[in-house]
Amino acid sequence: MRLRVTHVTRYQYTDPVSLCHSLARLKPRDTERQRTLTAQVRVDPWPAVAREHIDFFGNRVNYFSIQQSHSSLEVTAQSEVEIRAPTWPDPVITPPWEEVVRALKHGRDTRLIDARLFTLASNQVPLSSEANSFAAPSFRPGRPILEAALDLMGRLHRDFEYDPAFTTITTPLDEVLAHRRGVCQDFAHVALAALRGRGLAARYVSGYLETRPPPGQAKLRGADASHAWFAVLIPGLGWVDLDPTNDQAAQEQYVTVAIGRDYQDVAPLRGVFYGGATHELTVAVDVDRVGSG
Amino acid sequence: MPPQTAALSGGPTRLVDDYRPVAGVYDEMRTADGEVRPHWQYLIEVLRALGPDGIEERWRDARRLIRDNGVTYNAYGDTEGMSRPWELDLLPLQIRSDEWATLERGLIQRAELLNLILSDLYGPRKLITAGLLPATLIDAYPGYLIPCHGVPATDDQPLVDYAVDLTRTPDGAWRVIGDRTQCPSGAGYALENRVVLSRVMPSLFRDSHVHRLAGFYRSVRRALTRLAARRTPPTRIVMMTPGPSHEAYFEHAYLANYLGYNLVQGADLSVRDGALWLRTLGRLERIDAVLRRVDDLWCDPLELREDSHLGVPGLTQAARAGNVTLANALGSGVLEHPGLMAFLPRLCQHLLGEDLLLPDIPTWWCGEQADMARVLDELETLVIKPAGNPPGRRCLFPGRMDPAERAALVARIQAEPDRFVAQEHIVPSTAPALIGRRIEPRPTVLRTFLVAEEQGYTVMPGGLSRVAFEQDTPMISSRLGGIGKDTWVLASEPERQESLLGTGDLLAPAVAQESEVSSRVADNLFWIGRYAERAEGLVRLLRITIFKLSERQGYAATDDLTSCVPSLLQALTHQSQAYPGFVGDGFEERLRDPMPEMLSLIADPERLGGLPQTLQALGQAAWSVRERLSVDTWRVINDIEEHLRALTRRPPRDFGPALDELDPLVTALVAFSALTHENMTHNEGWNFLEAGRRLERGLNTATLLRGTLSRIGREHEEHLLIEAVLGITDSLITYRRRYQAGTRVGALLDLVFQDETNPRSLAYQLVQLERVCRQMPRGEMAAGRSSIERLILRSLTGVRLVEIDRLIQPDRTGTKRVALRRMLGQLSDQLAAVSDALTAQYFRHEEQPHALLGRVGRGPQ
């Protein structure tokens, strides 16, 4: 399936900004199931410096700096990607989760070594006994890993309330766990803490979700905004993307933009500016199907 | 007296005989058999010859030098704050040349090894994929900065500047106990220790054939020049400091000065066009390399710590684009991971094909299961170093814990084994240290320094040794604490005298090259000028007022002779702006009994506008531009601060003792003025200092004249006031010579208002102010006079054109000089406007950078 994404971010400042440096992770990366056909990031006003590099995780990062005085900033990312639907095996035949933990710890395979990073606590996903006990019912001894991960996702979906008013990007994980509410970022972080607490490799995924409700069905949440979910590594199978906000494994309508240890690694746009006093942010995202469909 | 100490007072022979090394510990001076090692013999002889009193005298000399040079170090949690003087032991650590050569080889190998590891970790990470380094060892360490991955290092040399902490095991073998790689401090203190010691013990130093240090600092300059991003001269290199409140700020300023680099803070720098620039007055200067003293994480709020105000947004990008060289490269703190030591022998074989020459203390990383089991088994005998978040450098000693604490530690290790490292508990070797009047063995750690030159690493022939205060110290921390010690590597041949100056080194630009003045520096210099002058003016006014008040004693309070006092007191309030004082609410009461208010102005540190606050502000501004003030100037600043301390610690209760403090203070302030005038190059920076001084003096004079001459008093009173004003403005002698017939207001104004040759007159201040402002940098578009110059010229023209006789005409009531008062008021306003204009044009620092709002990804709306 082909999807076209348009993501417009606009900052309006109360005072003029004299200088601004920004990093954007808005161009979708390639994955095993995703090919990026076109991608561009336009910045208005015109940046004096614009450069792209690939970060540690393989994400595409656009750095730009605006050196003329400006009172608004608009960043428009447009891309077209082709995504293949995943084919997951029957969860029952995936290996017991403890076996995966052992493989991650002792395996000599490069992929496993590379994945070890994702078994570690990170700034926004610290080790959490609260997350560990939340995970416990899903991780009965010997349970196949995919079954356990799907179960965890389902419980997250059921037990946590979606509440954009409750959290900000700096709300600590334990607070999310204590109140059982948050947004997609928070749910992904909780899942990461739960999986990493077991010694499993799990990574944060930022991206988009196409919203095109099939007739008669409810509109999927996650529409018209950037979205986030998590992926767990199953040796031999690869990274399996799971979306606890909508309680489903990622299908064709999930566009992956960037991956990292947590939100901090993949924030779509971060920046530092001089002047400006206060500012307001508006975001508009459109995900459209291209061609048939 | 404890038997193991050698008493200086016990006669020459006992000096050494009473010195008993601790059993089972290597001692630098004596062998286990009690023999004095040969290379210590000469030092011992010299000490014997000096005798206890001689030694103490030298020690006092050293203390004085340290104080005069303002050498400070502020260890965290130190209650004395920033001004705790650096402690220096009189006895250097002495090391034989041949032994040093062996150590040197090991250090160079280690630096090369660490440099290769660093390059790999921020590049291909082959060491991890090949299984030579566990991924979790590195990736779980907060010092490994993933955003810095892929930033290329100039010449593959991310580790430019490197320090190692060393001690000896009982068999005398050197062991590394710590690596300092992100911004290693201590090289400045090492130099300062050397300067002090070689001055206090010149002949001992000369005859001991000590290896000189200057060559090492030349290497540092060469290395940075070579690595500077743009090779076409002139390359610009700066030293970046977190600022005056940093514990080692003294060293930053000292080293920057010695190396001839501009000392800058993050706010002085800016990233534009993908490169790094220094904001100087009215323009930007491209920077090619940064010797940084700001820790990795704080260097760039765009990619590293968002809340850092010490760094420069975009710095990582500038380095990524190859437009600036950072020494060391961002992220080099990963090498400080204590667990890395466990892997070095293997890595050395792999990367260099050699055995590790200089072994570490046996180290285990708990992330390896077998190692953890062993660590937990032998926990009591080990030192535990957490390598977690935040990167802690604190060591834990399980052997000293109670069982509950130990159990808690075991649980923590088991929960996060990746974050714990264990090391064998080694007792550092001891060296003789002067403790009181005795020489005693004290645990000693040597920090030495390396720098990357084209042909390889160069080691400083010496270093900074530190001894613990107490004999029973488990381990000297890697922080700079304890007592400093110079380190002498003894050459067999005497060495040529050298210094950084005049080496004729082609690679290095002349040290005397003037570094640009940043806006921040100009701002501080301007205020140094203002505060110094303000303090001097205040003290002068206070003194004269006290004299006049003292004359009153014995006369009736209403006596004509003393009626100038209220005017002086009111001038005091206006000048210090310490309202209400003798002007506002309740002034009558204070005029009747002025002493408490005056003493408060003199000694109350809480009093806004009072003398202590003015002096404190002067000290702070001076400290912020430490590197731009000469040693002599700094000594005067120290004197001034000592007077300040004396005033505030023992506030005078009467005028007599107050005068005793004020008199030397005036002398010190005058000395400060003279030094800044005579000993500073009259360059861009000096122009600002001078502008501040002239502006303040002009304001003071205008305020003084306005306060004293606006009201027309009786003849006696006028006479006394004129005399007082002449005293305050130091113009009495000229006045007497010029106007022999009596005292007149007109003559006074002629001299202290309109005379452009009198350095105390208002007109003189304006002339000087105009002159220095004309030399300040201006925008490219500017033609003719700048707005600042026009402001000054308006004042100056007014002063030149006015007819004194008309100016002092009484008003209709015959009690006031309205025209004079108005004009002085206008002049004060105009001078204040000049100050504002200077601030707006030159000192306006760019606003604080902010982070953009986050949460762009927020899920459904």
Describe this structure in words.
The complex is a heterodimer of chains A (293) and B (861). Chain A has 293 residues and is of the alpha+beta class. Chain A contains seven helices and 14 strands. Chain A has helices at 97-106, 110-115, 129-135, 145-159, 173-179, 184-197, 263-266; strands at residues 2-27, 34-44, 49-54, 60-66, 70-83, 161-162, 181-182, 202-209, 226-234, 238-243, 248-249, 254-260, 269-275, 279-289. In chain A, strands 1, 2, 3, 4, 5, 13 and 14 form a seven-stranded antiparallel beta sheet that branches. In chain A, strands 11-10-9-8-12 form a five-stranded antiparallel beta sheet. A two-stranded parallel sheet of chain A has the order 6-7. The mean pLDDT of chain A is 92. Chain B folds into four domains: 93-339 and 428-490, no CATH class; 362-424, Dna Ligase, domain 1 (2-Layer Sandwich), CATH 3.30.1490.270; 520-680, no CATH class; 690-843, no CATH class. Chain B is built from 28 helices and 20 strands. Chains A and B meet through strand 1, strand 3, helix 2, strand 9 and strand 13 of A and helix 5, strand 7 and strand 20 of B. Strand 13 (269-275) of chain A pairs antiparallel with strand 20 of chain B.
